[in-house]
Amino acid sequence: MSSRKQIVTGGVHMTNVIVITGGTGGMGFATARKLSSRENTVILLADLNGAALANAKTALAGQAATIETVVCDITSEADVTYMADTAANLGHISGVIHTAGVSPSMGDYRKIIAINALGTVNVDQAFIDLTDHNFSLVNVASMAGYMLPKMMIPKHAYKTVDRDSEILYHRLLQRCQLLPKNRRAQMAYPLSKNFVMWYTEHISPVYGSRGAHVVSVSPGSFDTSMGRLEKDKGAGAMVNYAAIKRFGTPQEVGDLLAYLVTDAPAYLTGTDILIDGGVVGQLRLRDMLSLT
């Protein structure tokens, strides 16, 4: 479909394109709403649910930005490649905001690892050859990634991603299988999100060689449909430890994600930004162990 190169006209980039995976979710849609006021911009919303994409496009109609959609399963390399090529054919890709993911209440540990970890690898790899110095990649991780004590972080397993993502997948599953079946999803979530943070740092020199920057953002407890699934446990329970004792709003994290695909933070790369109301700063090791 595409030569895997950015489209240019007369040496000048065309309309800027910003891709948002999970674009119909609370954070993804809030980010799209924030970005929709930008002129000369196409926002490509990607999601697995075609009906939800149609509703999101209708809700954002009439704004300065043009809204396009693509159905995409981020665990499928073919789907993600198609999404990236679709973006390239719409104009100059200036940003990718990868919000798609699942929580412990949304599937078993195998699904969580596949979507959160392997999905991130697929998305990040798909855009490498389509980037230049006017490009920002933002991966959404989670404060849960900070819940794993250093002794439990399997960086040796993470590094297998450079050999084969399937090896990574099975190594992370093996780590979850050390726990009883009813605890594996609770392990898979912080493990997969810790990997997202690690992978963002790991891949930043590759993007940096093209003058692009990549960061991860770790939200805490937010009032989204996914967050409400964890209201009485997980993210909900962690509000009790917060310095600001409330759920964050989708727009609060959406505003941050939108800012990160501007030119302003171009020197910010290979790091994680924690937006959690102060939870992680208040937790002790005993608290972290009880929450994993």
From TrEMBL:
Entry keyword set: Oxidoreductase
MF annotations from Gene Ontology: oxidoreductase activity, acting on NAD(P)H, oxygen as acceptor
Pfam families linked: adh_short (PF00106), adh_short_C2 (PF13561)
InterPro entries hit by this protein: NAD(P)-bd_dom_sf (IPR036291), SDR_fam (IPR002347)
Family as reported in the entry's similarity comment: Belongs to the short-chain dehydrogenases/reductases (SDR) family.
PANTHER family with a match to the protein in the record: BENZIL REDUCTASE, CHAIN DEHYDROGENASE, PUTATIVE (AFU_ORTHOLOGUE AFUA_4G08710)-RELATED
Record protein name field: Oxidoreductase
Organism taxonomic ancestry: Bacteria, Bacillati, Bacillota, Bacilli, Lactobacillales
